[in-house]
Amino acid sequence: MSRRSLTPLYHAFDEARFGPERTLNLRASLPSPYHAARRAEAWLRERQVARAGEVLVITGRGNRSFENVSVVREAIATLLASLRRRGVVERVVEHTPGSFVVSLAPVTALRDAARRRREHHQPASADPRELAGLSAETRSLLRALALRALEELGVGDPHRFLEAEMLAQFASLAPSVPAGPDRELRLRAAITIAIQEYDDR
Question: Residue 9 burial by CB count (10 A; 0-12/13-18/19+): exposed, middle or buried?
């Protein structure tokens, strides 16, 4: 039996394994490489916070592209390598010539990756004024996460570094929380997940 005749069977297996919630099909909408990468990063970050585990990213193999090279696939491969360094992705496996199986990292890996890179600057989203705009409930959760992270590092006097760690944790989590009226609710969920991950270590 040829591989082509088995294609529907492979698709059925993928649907059963991943389902629509854990599948991103970029091939269907034919985006530019830039838009494909932006969409994929936002989706992967959101799936990481949702603790989706393994997900399937379909890029297409580029059969209709110049010299049969999928520029979208290349853009996604580059993005996935970058997201590994930034703590979003844990592992990537080529599933087919037109798709990747991506294992998402724990939420706490976002902050751990920033520490490994020794980032001395904070992204714009870590503005203290933005923290002040959060509800008391969200700030309290963020404070608990910062304390838990500093304890994990063995910091003797965590309160000295608490505000800086709150800002850093917020900067790590904020890009994974999509904009919208329920953004702060989603942020609290992400913070709670990160605390649970520290507790489970």
Answer: exposed
Pick the closest to residue 173 from 62, 97, 86 (CA basis).
86
Is there a contact between 71 and 65 (Cβ–Cβ < 8 Å)? yes
CATH number at residue 13: 3.30.1370.110
Sheet of 89-96: strand order equals 23-25, 54-58, 99-104, 89-96
Instruction: Please check whether residues 118 and 191 belong to one and the same domain.
Output: yes
What total of structural domains would you count in the chain?
A: 2
**Domain, as residue range, for 138:** 109-200
Confidence of residue 24 (pLDDT cuts 50, 70, 90): very high
Structure pTM? 0.80
Contact between 100 and 93 under an 8 Å Cβ cutoff? The reply is yes
pLDDT of residue 143: 96
